[in-house]
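Good morning,

Attaching, inline, the backbone tokens for the sequence recovery test we're adding to the shared suite. The designed sequence is right after.
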């Protein structure tokens, strides 16, 4: 039987020695490539794959990079999409990350050859972006910023007894995926002193609660929900009059007011209104890498920076590089999306619909800020509308394209698709269109 596939199946070593396969092994790691080769040769033996196609099938099955994370075109219209990694980095930030990835002077003064302070470029850029802050510090994420505040201020320096954080009941917030700010604070030994009711709190409630055990007053921005109707909250200016440290978690990381997001707090305004410390995320509306920002009164920030727990929350060189480029480089995708003009998006959608052909149409749509804040704000946008049946094949393509189904049609919302990806989008649709 000259046709027995088992006899004609090449040996593993022979396939691994093929120049294209060897090049892939050098790029992706020999273990990963060998795993694919072994699987394909098994299929040769059972007759699923023709032996002469083995190398081609192996090359086809190899991933493009040594990560299982896939590239995704975010066509959901949700600007800060938590499940898609929040803010996409700017090209400048990506380049900065690549530059910092090798050995870099993150903690060395090259002029003297001695050890230098860590991440000075990124910290200086952040300080320059928020001149109202006496000092700034960066940690791993927004939760880490709050955790550092809790550790450094939430206990007496003498014997570590728990002190109180005064917080309004309406601000005992769950951010997402079960992460609750009150539980984070309590897990670090801070006692919560809740004031007011779910919908209303007054300055007098805070005044009655503040006392010798108060470590700080915490104001948390309800970044993912809105309470409407019979409500009242206490302004930062009023809280600043209480005479204890005032920490404001603004969440989204806006550094200055944004005209389209009038209800979203920003660091500069909150500091000017009298907050002693502001905490925020770096990968929401700022549009940078995952990190947590701490801005405020110099003495407090220094106390946080020198607390032993700060080391456990330290950001790496890649984050520092991306943050600096986000702050000083060209406008990153998130702020660009927030500034997008709907008529331009519709013109783009019309052009793309023409390129795709009959099954596509251009429609006006509404985007959202998403996990980054501004709940309830609708951002005028435009989308490429397609048959809903294309949703799954587009999600499984490379790059994956994720849209959302609306009124029985798949909408690929252009608010969140940078214009330079238009061709990629058209090609992805053409590949799966009937
Ligand atoms: C997002 C958010 C956090 C948590 O920040 P992470 O960067 O996700 O850790 C905390 N507080 C508020 C108000 C937020 O919106």
């Amino acid at each position: 039987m000259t046709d027995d596939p088992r006899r004609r199946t090449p040996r593993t070593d022979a396939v691994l020695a093929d120049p294209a396969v060897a090049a892939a092994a050098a790029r992706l790691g020999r273990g990963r490539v060998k795993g694919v080769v072994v699987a394909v040769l098994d299929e040769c033996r059972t007759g699923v794959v023709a032996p002469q196609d083995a190398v081609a099938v192996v090359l086809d099955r190899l991933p493009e990079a040594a990560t299982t994370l896939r590239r995704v075109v975010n066509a959901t219209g949700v600007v800060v999409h938590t499940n898609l990694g929040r803010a996409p980095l700017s090209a400048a930030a990506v380049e900065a990350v690549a530059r910092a990835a090798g050995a870099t002077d993150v903690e060395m003064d090259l002029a003297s050859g001695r050890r230098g302070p860590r991440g000075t470029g990124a910290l200086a850029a952040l300080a320059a972006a928020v001149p109202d802050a006496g000092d700034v510090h960066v940690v791993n994420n927004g939760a880490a910023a709050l955790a550092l505040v809790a550790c450094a201020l939430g206990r007496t320096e003498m014997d570590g007894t728990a002190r109180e954080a005064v917080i309004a009941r309406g601000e005992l917030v769950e951010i997402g995926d079960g992460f609750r700010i009150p539980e984070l604070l309590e897990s670090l030994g801070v006692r919560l002193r809740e004031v007011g009711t779910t919908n209303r709190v007054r300055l007098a409630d805070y005044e009655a609660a503040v006392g010798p055990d108060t470590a700080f007053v915490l104001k948390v921005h309800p970044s993912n929900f809105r309470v409407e109707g019979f409500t009242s909250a206490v302004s930062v200016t009023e809280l600043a009059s209480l005479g204890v440290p005032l920490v404001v978690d603004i969440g989204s990381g806006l550094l200055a007011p944004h005209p389209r997001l009038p209800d979203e707090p920003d660091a500069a305004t909150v500091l000017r209104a009298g907050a002693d410390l502001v905490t925020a995320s770096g990968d929401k509306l700022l549009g940078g890498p995952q990190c947590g920002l701490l801005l405020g009164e110099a003495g407090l920030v220094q106390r946080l920076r020198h607390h032993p727990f700060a080391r456990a929350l330290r950001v790496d060189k890649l984050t520092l590089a991306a943050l600096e480029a986000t702050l000083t480089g060209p406008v990153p995708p998130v702020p660009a999306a927030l500034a997008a003009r709907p008529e331009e998006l519709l013109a783009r959608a019309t052009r793309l619909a023409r390129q795709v052909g009959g099954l596509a149409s251009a429609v006006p749509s509404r985007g959202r800020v998403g996990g980054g804040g501004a709940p309830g704000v609708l951002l005028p946008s435009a989308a490429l509308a397609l048959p809903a049946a294309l949703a799954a094949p587009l999600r499984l393509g490379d790059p994956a394209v994720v849209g959302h189904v609306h009124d029985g049609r798949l909408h690929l919302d252009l608010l969140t698709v940078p214009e330079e990806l238009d061709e990629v989008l058209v090609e992805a649709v053409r590949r799966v269109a009937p």
